[in-house]
Structure prediction request, 1052 residues.
Amino acid sequence: MAELLQFVITGITVGMVYALIALGFVLIWKSSGVANLALGQLVLISSWFTYGVLVQAGLPLWIGFLLVILFALAMGWIIERFVLRPLIAQPILSLITVTLGIAFFIEGAVSFIWPKSVAALPNFFPQETIHIGTAVVSQEYLWAAAISLALFGLLSLFFKYHKMGVAMRATADDQMAVQACGIPVTRIFSWSWMFACTLAAIGGILMSSIGGITFGLVETGLKSFSVVILGGLDSFLGAIIAGPIIGLAENLGGGYLTPLTWSGIKEVIPFIIIIIVMFLKPYGLFGEVRIERI
Amino acid sequence: MNWRKLLVLAGVVSLALIITMIPLLSAGCAGSAEQPVKVGFSICYTGPAAEKGRPMGDGKLDCMKYINEELGGVAGHQVEVIWRDNQYDAAKAATIINELISSECLLFTTNSSKMMMASAETANRAEFPGFAVFSAPVLTNPPQHIYAQMPDYGDDWAAFAKYYLDNIWQGTEKPKMALHLLNNTTGSGARDAANALADEMGIEIVADEEHTATTISEIESLTRIKAENPDILYISSTPQPTSIIVKNAVELGMYPGMTIACGHASFTSVLVELAGTDAEDVYGVFPTVNWGDDVPAMAKMTEYCQEYHPDDFGNMDYITCWAEGLIVAEILRLAIDNVGVDNLTPQAVEEYGFKKLNNFDVGGLHGPVTYTPGDNRLSKSVRIFQVQNGEIVAITGWVEAPLIPYKFD
Amino acid sequence: MDLPAGTRNYTYAQDMAIFRTRTHWVLLAVLFVFLFTAPLYWGNYWLGVANLIGITIIAATGLNILTGYCGQLSIGHAGFIAVGAYTSAVLTNRFELPFLVGLISAGLIAGLIGMIFGIPSLRVKGFYLAISTIAAQFIIIWVLNHWTSVTGGFNGISVPPASIGSIVFISQTSYFYLVMIITVLVIFLAKNLARMRPGRAFVAVRDNDLAAEVMGINLFRYKLLAFFIGCFLAGIAGSLLAHWIGFMNAENFTLIDSVLYIGMIIIGGLGTAAGPIFGALFIRLLQQGITLIAPVLENTFTLPAGFTTGIGPMVFGLAIILFLILEPRGLAHRWQLFKAAYRLWPFSY
Prediction:
């Protein structure tokens, strides 16, 4: 029984971390219809930049964070301007593949600039663990969960009420109509990529303070795909809810199935969930079902 | 004619010429007039394992430079090193081993067990001897032409288990051990050793958990382990997941309390950096000395490292490969002394070089190297370390890892 | 296809011929002579590289049929190659069946597994399908790693050398002939597939699958057929790879390899028969180039520590991005333009 509580708490908190990364993905999908397969690598390079700024250059915390945010904005702008804008009307295969190319390039750039493959960030959060009943959870996870929820709230409000947010949704729906209304579509794409990179940077900072900076951040990006698929590609609410669900499935499934089946089954559970969701409800729990016409 | 077209035509023609010339050029790059002694290195300089591969590559190349320049080669003959970057890719390693064989190298080495596995079949069929710095049990059992420079992950487990039973365990019944293993040969090596020897040594394995190299939380598996109340947790993995496990164990209140020990793949300064104060008093096994220890080869190695690759200073992997260079030189020296430089073939080098190794001390950098029939491990001892006050400190001398009766079909 | 000026087609066979003029046949003969006498002047190393390129071409052709012709994006191709490799390894090692049985079974079982993981393609398209193929690869690799009793788990499994009857393919030369013959057959198969009914159905499905269904093309059948053929070829490639390396370990098949295959067919040219050849050549030669240059650069310059680690992926990423921006139809299209320009020279303006 005590185990169950521990599994549940761990599952929810770990899931919120996945949801944080998934939010960045949903943002780009919602505003430009591009599937960003380079998400893990964006998280990686933001984390390394944080390391470079905080540890190698030794700047104080607040200036460091500001620089990281600026870096993320700049990177988003550069990616959109030089890589995605030439490909505006291309079929989706090209867009997905070019994000794969960006992913490769960023991985190489990271190895080039920071040859160490593992590094630790200084601790931002207090280190004592919090006890909930008999379960323990470290404060970093709680902070990550809280920040995810805050970002989710901000993003939902932004997309619903702010002029730019509404324009982004309109662009994802029908680019030509938006252009006919006089809204500069390219500027919308720029802003959406810049926001997404910022989200990736925040996610990266939180995740690296939990587990250090390694290439594993990319794999966690892959797990966020399962969150995105389950929740629906274009729904923030879906990402926030599906994140804990996947986390719970991993921990509960891993916790109770491992003694019965094989050890290590925990790592394959998110992918099995993807396949099951594909069969049953391809657009996810909260995704918008696209009706296709010839 | 249009200049642009001319340029494009010239570019295409020169590209075609280059492509056809590459095979001819590289084929002609073989031996020189005098007969140098050739060895082949397959190094993972780039790719996923570059973090270990680069300092290891630097170590062995610097050592060969030292041997050629300061010691005048091996028994008066310069050693020609042919090295290739296998990018930690099995297909690449397979092409490289073919190149090394056809370039008339006398022996070859690789950094990692995975690269050796990709090269082993070809090497064994061609009777081309070689050794892997970091090895895996399946490479040396059954023993053929592949050797292991240092004890592997299974040996780490056996050595630490022996040390634990002799020095730390105070109870009367069997101690309870939980294993937390990485999902590749690093982890399965320890598992295979535990399966083969635990009963005989008197240890009860109560849990066998697996994790990935990219995990961010092992609370779930540690909760299960906690329920079994183990006395010792043995982790065979790489630094980052090990740090996660240690930190989670501290959070769950399991540590301090039980003993935690790590295999050599994770026990480096990176672990201490990532886990911080949680890693205090964690034990670890490592097959070489640490930088700064007082052994004969330390001075020369430090000098070359500081001069040519100062970034690698402090990295234990550099030590393993400096030692590898010394062993390669020793093997060649024994072979030349026994059969003469004109009769050197890969088979002769194996018979009169590898198999004649007897208590070669490798400058004190790791355990002495001896070949015993039936055991293809060149060095069989490790050293137990512990993290004390944030530093990695050796707490034993050389501990011999017993030969483990694996059963691989 | 561009034909020289003055070539008229009077029969259906002439119209449909791949090698239409005498020049075509002569060039083809020269190519075959060059290829099959290559062992005479290429050393062991380059024969090994050629074997790897041949195997890659087979796998890339499979992916091209699946993604290029039929439009089903699959980023899990390395997983299906792994299935083929392990099937062949297990059948020849544990059950001691002959190599040809292992080869064909590898293809069939990989095709079958491909069909099973291709079933989502009936409900989802585009990005969703790509994600489910990534999931498929992870699941396949996990199963291969953990099914220790059959596959040897993490320790891997050793693969006996290929042999047909009394010929044992151990040396690079003999393996070269085996791989080249199979590669030529596979390319021929792919080229003809595009011209037959299944190929045309694939292209219709790619362009607009709803319209194709309205026209009477059974989506269920043809999408699964595309997955089957694509993964069948991946299985064949995997089996050849296993017998070439001699040792099989699931760690060899990562997501990066799958992405590399997608890169290959994009750079080579989607939906063309020659595309996979160009793409495989480009990527493999680039990799070999980096492998050969690294020692030279290390010895001559003192480079920053991360240079050799980072330069490979950076170059690949940049190549993929540049090709997609500047030449989205790939090298095959450039080749077509070159041929057309050559024919029209000096009027090619």
